[in-house]
Predict the structure of Malate dehydrogenase.
Amino acid sequence: MFTARSAFSTIGRRAFSVSAHQSSKVTILGAAGGIGQPLSLLLKLNPRVTDLALYDIRGGPGVAADVSHVNTKSKVTGYDPAPEKLKAALEGAEIVLIPAGVPRKPGMSRDDLFKTNASIVRDLAKAAADYAPNAKLLIISNPVNSTVPITAEVFKAKGVYNPKRLFGVTTLDVVRASKFISEIQGTDPAGEEVTVVGGHSGVTIVPLLSQSNHPSIDGATRDALVKRIQFGGDEVVQAKSSAGSGGSATLSMAFAGSRMADSLLRASHGETGVFEPAFVQSPLYKDYGCEFFSSRIELGPEGVKEIHPVGKVNKYEEGLIAIALNDLAANIKKARHCDTPPIYAITDPRIGSGVCQGKPISRR
Ligand SMILES: NC(=O)c1ccc[n+]([C@@H]2O[C@H](COP(=O)([O-])OP(=O)(O)OC[C@H]3O[C@@H](n4cnc5c(N)ncnc54)[C@H](O)[C@@H]3O)[C@@H](O)[C@H]2O)c1
């Protein structure tokens, strides 16, 4: 279990055990945003990262200059928005994290971001497929349920798709589940592990409390806890809306993204028994139209080592999974039918421009 409290002490201890021969370049696309900046800082503190490449359409070099003064060994480089800079940011990367895109505003679901973020992620995925085809790709931009299948289609079209290396980052859901259940039980979140399966949006997020330390949580307490885990992101969106500029979870998300990247680095550097949930290409519910599904994943040097089944669930959780599969299948289908390039048009004043043409992605 990786918690906020243990993160820095663990990283500090590991500083002595990381071999000088291991070099790991990590690239963040969208590094100057609300998530990108704290994520850059957390990765600068990670001794497994030797090169940190920070790219954004605005502000990448500024964030890099700032973060580069932190006195850890890694080299930090910022990149301006130009095709050759994007290429340089990506080349040689072992891990590429993508938090580029727009965040939610109050009243929006993650799916409402599709129009704008689908094309941003698609274009960045094309560059990643060209310049870092072997990197592990961590998609943070929402709606993850759709941006991950879009990325898979781009990689397939380029002939470089390896499902073991594509991850939708759902780590924040298990981080929240662990914290929220500990608040109810009065326990230390460090000892609370809750498996969360499904996708990363509202009812597609399914916490399996029956597999937690507290399987007897029931009734109204259980219903409220499940709802809080599913819609925890809304608490942050609402709270931030009063500040004017708004936005969604950034600091807790940066923590979760940094944990996921660290887990992949540990696994690629030979550590065994590294588990994380993630939204990956999965056989578990393929028959239900869900070719992508989040469950407990064992990580290895190649990325996904083993996808664990959902395991024993109770009737209530069976019902939650059924509801999740319905939404998830629609989210994945929508992604499959998003063509390139999009026709831009103002379609939603809350998020600006961008619209999907609704044709299958062409294989070029
Ligand atoms: N997976 C999760 O659990 C999770 C949690 C919270 C937020 N998110 C999502 O993460 C995304 C980013 O959120 P944020 O709060 O950091 O938003 P933000 O607006 O603060 O930052 C986004 C950054 O992306 C940059 N950007 C936009 N288009 C780009 C492009 N084509 N290339 C490079 N950079 C580009 C912007 O300049 C900006 O700096 C949103 O889609 C949000 O919904 C995901």
User: Anything to note?
Assistant: The radius of gyration is 19 Å. Residues 1-20, 339-364 have pLDDT under 50 and may be disordered.
